[in-house]
Design a protein that fits this description.
alpha/beta, D-Maltodextrin-Binding Protein, domain 2, 12 helices
């Protein structure tokens, strides 16, 4: 009898605690202007890079947490296409039908400079270090593409895997290395990290390796897996990891200095649903979504300090974000890159 009473009291207590928590949550919602505003808006439109299945996964979780958000229209859009669309619609004085925008690399700098982001410093950005968020709260990284050197495990013996960037200059790799013919962010960030003189010396020697110039990081990993070439000098780590996880004969190594390309998200300056946008940004940058969706499901890197990498090889690795301020010298960087690597050559696209 005592045991039954004890269980009954425990159940009563649990129900009571849940009821109090629910009541407190409702009270908070009633007093939070962002929640009140989001309830009235009820929908959200996002334009962002990143595989659509993972964007949809986040959107579904978001609607489950905030059931008053009836619709989330998540549209996958490459960075350059997104910026061009915003610029075109701005020139025609048309208000873009979007609330949240997400782009990568130098495009983040351009959109911030051109005034397309509205400032919103999400509380979640406290867990994100400098370099992976805008100093005035215009954007923060919702995932990170770490830079790796990838190789085909059927074509490269373990003893031959490069251990440093300088190893790519060995004569055995001549004609066997693939390289993206617009690798501007990596080029500029490498020169800044190691020093211009040393960096340019490496780049010029690297350019003499009879590189196989290809276009597009995703396509190059697919070609690597197919055995088109044994080594891919600059690859996105997440793409290599996903391909390896699917059974392809590929793997990666991180060469020091290790770089990463921030993929950032922020609120559009003329968002029709600004409160829903703020809730979405908080949710997207939360530890839960970063860990469970972008890291565990998508194999991406996270800028958050409290998220555990899916691949333990990343633990303790110092990663340097691309310096996006270098985008101010984009034309100069692109010109120098082409002079070093593409003089007398026809680009792949």
């Amino acid at each position: 009898m005592g045991r039954i009473l004890s269980l009954g009291f425990g159940l009563f207590l649990a129900i009571g605690v849940h009821a109090i928590a629910t009541f407190n949550s409702l009270q908070a919602a009633e007093s939070d202007p962002v929640l009140i505003g989001a309830q009235k808006e009820g929908e959200l439109v996002t334009w962002a890079v990143g595989e659509i299945q993972f964007q949809t996964m986040v959107a579904d979780r978001f609607k489950k947490k905030y059931p008053f958000i009836r619709k989330v229209n998540a549209i996958r859009m490459p960075s350059e296409k997104l910026r061009n669309r915003l610029l075109t619609e701005a020139r025609t004085a048309k208000r873009s039908d979007v609330d949240v925008i997400g782009v990568s690399g130098f495009e983040l700098f351009y959109l911030a400079e051109q005034g397309f982001f509205a400032p919103y410093a999400s509380p979640e950005t406290k867990a994100i270090p400098e370099g992976f968020k805008h100093p005035q709260g215009l954007w923060a990284a919702y995932y990170v593409n770490t830079v790796v050197t990838a190789f085909n495990t059927n074509l490269v013996a373990p003893a031959d895997v490069p251990k440093a960037w300088e190893d790519l200059l060995h004569s055995k790799w001549r004609g066997k290395i693939a390289f993206f013919d617009e690798e501007y962010e990596w080029f500029a960030s490498y020169l800044k990290a190691v020093g211009r003189e040393k960096g340019l010396h490496f780049m010029r020697q690297f350019a003499k390796q009879d590189l196989q110039y290809r276009g597009g990081h995703t396509q190059m990993v697919q070609l690597l897996a197919a055995g088109e070439f044994p080594l891919l000098s600059v690859a996105w780590g997440p793409r290599v990891s996903v391909t390896k996880d699917r059974g392809a004969p590929v793997d990666w190594v991180a060469l020091d200095p290790v770089f990463s390309n921030p993929v950032g998200m922020g609120m559009y300056k003329s968002a029709k649903n600004p409160n829903a946008a703020k809730l979405y940004l908080d949710f997207m940058l939360s530890r839960e979504v970063q860990q469970e969706v972008w890291v565990n499901e998508a194999w991406k890197g996270s800028a958050r300090k409290d998220v555990i990498p899916k691949d333990p090889r990343w633990k303790g690795v110092k990663v340097i974000p691309f310096d996006l301020n270098l985008a101010q010298k984009y034309e100069e960087i692109a010109k120098e890159f082409r002079e070093v690597f593409l003089a007398g050559k026809v680009p792949s696209h």
